[in-house]
Amino acid sequence: MITTLHIKNIGIIEDITIDFNQGLNVLTGETGAGKTLIIDSLQIIAGGRFSKEMIRKGENQSFVELCLYEPKNQNAIEGNIIVSREINVSGKNMCKINGRMVTVNELKEFMKQFIEIHGQNDNQNLLESKRHLNYLDGFIGEEIVVKKQKYTELYDKYCEIKQELKNHFGDEKERQRKLDLIQYQIKEIEQANLKLKEEEELEEKRKKMLNAEKIKQNLEEADTLISENGIDSISMAIRALEKIEQMDNQYEKASSELKSIYYELQELARDVNSYKSDIDFKEEERDFIEERLDLIYALKRKYGNTIEEILKYKDTIKKEVEHIENLEEYNEKLRKEKKEIEEKMNSLANNMHELRMKKADIVSEKINQELKELEMKNAKIHVKVSYLEEFTRTGKNNVTFYIVTNMGEEEKELSKIASGGEMSRTMLAIKKVLADTDQMPVLVFDEIDTGISGKAANSVAHKLKRIANSHQVMCISHLPNIAAMADYNYFISKEICQERTKTQIKLLKEKEVIEEIARISSGEVNEVSLQYAYELRNKKAS
Asked: Is pTM beyond 0.70 here?
């Protein structure tokens, strides 16, 4: 429930704080005193749209804050939740939940759990068709709870098996597609016949091809210098040393070392000469090297950064093929289990469908009876239950509330109701029927008394009181019947202070409540209107 609402700088509201209570809270007061601004403030704190024109003239920002008490909320400190929203003239929002900053959308989603506002241009939870099935099931109660629980357990297992089959390529088309892809990759890599270090060798040959002329020219020069100059000169030096080597051991040693150099140089000359033949590349060889490198680069883009990585990838996907093929037996077992679960789910879904169809007619009938008492005699609610082909978490049904507001019109979804008064009374009728099953803590009704009086007014008042037994209800009203039924009455007025108009609010005592009922019943407080007010108040007590 909302325990406190603080509003600052919205319209003619300068700064007010309202302490609300459990039960039926009715707000009455002078025309233009700011009653609607209080509803607007609740819409703002619930994440609704805000226009900067709503900021009080001369101020830079507006502020709305409320304290929610939710004893079941384990995350709140002692059950208290402080929610605030500050908006400045630039349009910047600052939203907080228990001091933590949140976005407007997060605020809206959070507040949907606690407050529902029924009035013009509101998007109430009850108008969201995705919630209608839960409302119907809530009305059905224990009769569907067990079936729904069994179905949900099966549905969770069903989804688990579906996911496992998907991970195991349990779908035949998916499995075959995956196998085809892997086998293509294996074939592509194997046909390439890659070898370790092959890329480096090809790159080396390609480098030689690109520099063939330069390499050949320098090899020839080196060959000439070694053969014609180096070898001949060393040969002559050896012959000279041989003539004196017997004269001294050191000459003999020098001669021996020089002979070793001579033989090594001859070997080197043969090598350099052979290098020249390696430089003569044929065109076919050039093309082969380029094509081979292009192939390796293409495979690297697909399967790895090196030939080693590509070959490892091939080994990995070979194992994956074996794994997929061996999974078929296990997948078959899963598919059999899935089929058995589907049969059980279908049986439960059909039972729930029949039950929902039956109860939907009862809900429709009850709501339509409520609408008659609310002077909407031509309005008809149709709780439509449609059967789905696919399984969902709640069965195979979609539930939508449809309405015809005037005779001869086509039925339409609840959200298409144009009149704010019609919408509020329709919501009230639905809430009256679903009151015991609806878990929404706070309900706010605006313009619910538009265009009604007499018997319909009494009916609206009693229905609000009935709903307030299980919800905190806030209602702005101009009807004495509703004001008389309130558990707490708030009077909203305005005053001029320093040439500025501002809103005031007061929780009325019992004597003041009687006087306010008298005022709104006849426009003035006199003996007759006071007597009427006492009578209405006594009806509430009885």
From this structure: no
